[in-house]
Specification:
ATP binding; eight-stranded mixed β-sheet; 620 residues; ATP-binding; Arc Repressor Mutant, subunit A; six-stranded mixed β-sheet; 3 domains; alpha/beta; SUMO activating enzyme activity; UBA_E1_SCCH; binds zinc ion; 17 helices; Rossmann fold; Ubiquitin-activating_enz; Structural Genomics Hypothetical 15.5 Kd Protein In mrcA-pckA Intergenic Region, Chain A; binds adenosine-5'-triphosphate; globular
Length: 620
């Protein structure tokens, strides 16, 4: 029954394509749960689900596959179990794992027809984008923030990839703003969450991504002072769990430290000096504060109320840490880290951030607001997720049908005249640092292959590099003219194995010679024929190029504008007008205003139509 109605909507051909596809869903959160339900009910034959997280109480309002009894269980496994009940005949596979783990090889990515990203962070999105490009598998990328949503179709060589356009990076704050001169509530919240809490209950070696070392040399003395202050802080940890603990900590961070800052006259020429908070005065008023104040999360607390929540949460965290320490024998010392859903850490961050705000004459925030700001919470709206997940599936139909000309980037927004808008796909950005780099695959035997096997055997012998070259893994050069010593070392020394990426640069210094563009090596497993006994021993190579490619040359720097007889047809698709076109196909962007007509024929695909203004209407 269900199959026949799907067939009526999609047509026989598309229904068959859907049924025989093997797809990967990365992320089983807000969009992921909706998408899994859609994929299962549309009849996708085989669906693999990866998610590294466990289910949290706060997920239940929108991640509808999960119920209260699933809290703390794996998202991927529960999502699979629940979705399987919708259609027992669909093959579902779940992995409670990080998609960036090496166990997910390029070969494995390659085994999928389409991959769907339903993630919530830049690093994982970038990683999957790169793997899909390397594996040549189409990717449907999606994301939502509040009422806004976006679906992007990515296909190697045909469309923009995720990194073809620069992405906004999360906001960071200078260390001195956080530690010495806060001027906004967020500065106090980041201080409490990423400095104070780790100093007292964590490792103390705070590597919070939100706080950036300040390059300004004028602040060198201040930074040295801050280091000393951190050292004093570590001493305070001894007082955790004692009756005196909260007094010692309070008197240091809201007394001694503020006093020191106050005395740095230069700092307050254009700012209001901070004020000390008096421990004795606040401590005497403690008995008059209702202990239930911490549960009133929508009101802004008074200084006395913040003090009471500070004392209470500090003691709860201290006791927890002591208990953990008692349970651990040997190994890594236990730590407590911030989690917006861990009420003890949230109370501590809210109260100490507010006390700091009061000391610096900054507005205080309710616990509810602190939770949003400290947890980087962007309101998640179930309907936006559901619509976005639906659009992902509609776009995947275009990909399955190889109809990239009609695939779209789709936007959901509330501000415009329409809720759903779309744009034709852009061709790849020729300057993209990710997808414009030529890739080669090299098969290695990780146990024996050395840097020399790669440099001499593959780059020089097989690919014909003759001048100077360098070879790097992310963040580290492993070979260049100055580190010949590394040639005899095994690639495994740097953790290079199946799935690793290396960059090759042509460093030849010769004005007469054309330099090659940078290329990327992807390490793959040795194919059976090269590793089994069928191969003659003398033919065995620990590193071997899988397929020869032509490596383009770097464009020569133009000294003066030369008149060109013809517009260059080979500049990566750049037309003379400066508008990028896709090579060797009809211009995707010119399809933008094409009006397509809804069809009700049984064998015709579902209707996803543009009108003249580029918005999508969905008919059936
Ligand atoms: N590297 C990764 N590998 C696998 N899954 C990931 C990875 N990074 C993020 N995820 C998963 O992607 C999903 C994103 O879903 P969503 O945006 O709804 O976030 P959430 O964590 O469920 O919700 P919230 O952040 O509001 O608590 C999460 O379930 C998260 O665990
Ligand atoms: Zn790109």
């Amino acid at each position: 029954m269900r199959d026949s109605s799907v067939k009526r909507s999609l047509g026989t051909d598309l229904t068959t394509m859907v049924k025989t596809s093997r797809v990967l869903l990365v992320g089983a959160g807000g969009i992921g749960c909706e998408l899994l339900k859609n994929l299962v009910l549309t009849g996708f034959g085989e669906i693999h689900i990866v998610d590294l997280d466990t289910i949290d109480l706060s997920n239940l309002n929108r991640q509808f596959l999960f119920r209260h009894e699933h809290i703390k269980k794996s998202k991927a496994l529960v999502a699979k179990e629940v979705a399987q009940k919708f259609r027992p005949d669909v093959k579902l596979e779940a992995y409670h794992a990080n998609i960036m783990d090496k166990e997910f090889s390029i070969d494995w990515f390659e085994s999928f027809t389409v991959i769907f990203n339903a993630l919530d962070n830049l690093a994982a999105r970038r990683y999957v984008n790169r793997m899909c490009l390397a594996a040549g598998v189409p990717l449907i990328e999606s994301g939502t923030t509040g009422f806004n949503g976006q679906v992007q179709v990515i296909r190697k060589g045909e469309t923009e990839c995720y990194d073809c356009t620069p992405k906004e990076v999360p906001k960071t704050f200078a260390i001195c703003t956080i530690r010495s001169t806060p001027s906004q509530p967020i500065h106090c919240i980041v201080w409490a969450k990423s400095w104070l809490l780790p100093e007292l209950f964590g490792t103390g070696e705070d590597e919070a991504t939100e706080i950036q070392a300040d390059e300004n040399t004028d602040n060198a003395t201040e930074i040295a002072e801050l280091r000393k202050e951190a050292f004093d802080m570590r001493e305070l940890r001894e007082a955790l769990g004692t009756d005196e603990g909260y007094r010692k900590v309070f008197q240091k961070i809201f007394g001694k430290d503020i006093e020191r800052l106050k005395n740095m006259e230069d700092m307050w020429k254009t700012r209001q000096k901070p004020q000390l908070l008096d421990f004795e005065v606040l401590d005497q008023k403690l008995s008059s504060i209702d202990p239930a104040i911490a549960t009133k999360d929508q009101t802004t607390w008074t200084v006395e109320e913040n003090f009471a929540v500070f004392r209470n949460s500090f003691n709860r965290l201290s006791n927890r840490l002591k208990e953990l320490q008692a349970e651990t024998d040997g190994g890594e010392p236990p730590i407590l880290t911030f989690d917006k859903d861990d009420v003890d850490t949230l109370d501590f961050v809210a109260a100490t951030a507010n006390l700091r705000a009061i000391a610096f004459h900054i507005e205080t925030k309710s616990k509810f607001d602190v939770k949003q700001m400290a947890g980087n919470i962007i309101p998640a709206i179930a309907t936006t997720n559901a619509m976005t997940a639906g659009l992902c599936v509609l776009q995947s139909f275009k990909v399955l049908q190889q109809d990239m000309v009609h695939a779209k980037t789709v936007f959901l927004e509330r501000s415009g005249a329409r809720a759903i808008n779309s744009e034709s796909l852009n061709p790849p950005n020729p300057d993209c640092p990710v997808c414009s780099v030529p890739q080669i695959r090299v098969e290695i035997d990780p146990e024996v292959a050395t840097v020399n096997d790669l440099v001499e055997g593959v780059l020089r012998m097989e690919l014909g590099y003759s001048g100077e070259i360098s070879l790097a893994i992310p963040g580290q050069v492993i070979y260049d003219v100055d580190c010949e010593d590394n040639l005899e070392k095994k690639l495994s020394n740097w953790g290079i194995r199946k799935g690793s990426f290396l960059t090759v640069k042509d460093d030849t210094i010769d004005d007469e010679k054309d330099l090659r563009v940078d290329i990327e090596i992807i390490i793959v497993e040795q194919s059976k024929s090269s590793s089994n006994g069928a191969m003659e021993v003398e033919d065995f190579k620990p590193a071997k190029l899988q397929k020869l490619i032509d490596i383009p040359l770097q464009p020569k720097p133009q000294l003066a504008a030369q008149p060109s007889p013809e517009p260059a047809a080979s500049t990566n698709g750049d037309s003379v007008t400066g508008k990028r076109k896709r090579e060797g196909s009809s211009d995707l962007t010119n399809e933008h205003n094409a009006k397509r007509i809804a069809s009700t024929s049984v064998n015709e695909p579902i209707v996803l139509d543009d009108d003249d203004e580029g918005a999508i209407t969905i008919d059936d």
